[in-house]
Design goal:
The chain has about 150 residues and is an alpha+beta fold. Helices cover about 40% and strands about 35% of the residues. It has helices at about 1-40, 45-50, 65-75, and strands spanning about 50-55, 80-95, 100-110, 120-130, 135-145. It has a five-stranded mixed sheet with strand order 1-5-4-3-2, with helices on one face. The longest helix has about 40 residues, at about 1-40.
Length: about 150
């Protein structure tokens, strides 16, 4: 019985701090997403850049510099482009310093290939974050457009 009680105490002492850290990291990942939307919707390329990992990779760009160049071009032509957080699914940790934040967004103000404003839409997003020097940075983004 004494061994059992000792085991319970050891587990509580080691697990409770990890759970608290996870809650803090989960909140920090959500805050990183919130900051991304705010920076994007202001079309602030420098603020977006501060939220990306140096090894950021998208469907079209490899590296943070290439992603920022593409974003600058998008903002020049799509002056009304906006994202809006719609519905959260959750934050999953793949490792203590790697997380995926899953949620739905809506968008508006984007242009189609003919230069005409596209209708608003909705998509599922799952950005992958890495924790470096205490900051959660976006490494990549997986997304899927929701069909009507």
């Amino acid at each position: 019985m004494r061994t059992f009680i000792t085991l319970i105490i050891v587990l509580l002492v080691t697990v409770v701090p990890v759970m608290a850290q996870s809650a803090a990291d989960e909140a920090a990942v959500r805050e990183a997403t919130k900051k991304y939307f705010a920076a994007h919707n202001k079309h602030d390329v420098k603020a977006v850049a501060a939220l990306l990992d140096e090894n950021y990779q998208s469907w079209t760009d490899t590296g943070k510099a290439a992603a920022m160049k593409s974003l600058e071009e998008r903002f020049k032509t799509m002056k009304d482009a906006q994202f809006k957080f719609a519905e959260e699914i959750g934050v999953d940790f793949l490792a203590p310093d790697i997380a995926v934040h899953k949620f739905y967004i809506t968008w508006s103000g984007f242009l189609d290939t003919d230069g005409k404003t596209s209708p608003p839409g909705r998509s599922l997003w799952a950005p992958l974050y890495v924790k470096k020097n205490g900051q959660w940075l976006r490494r990549t983004l997986f997304w899927r457009i929701e069909e009507e």
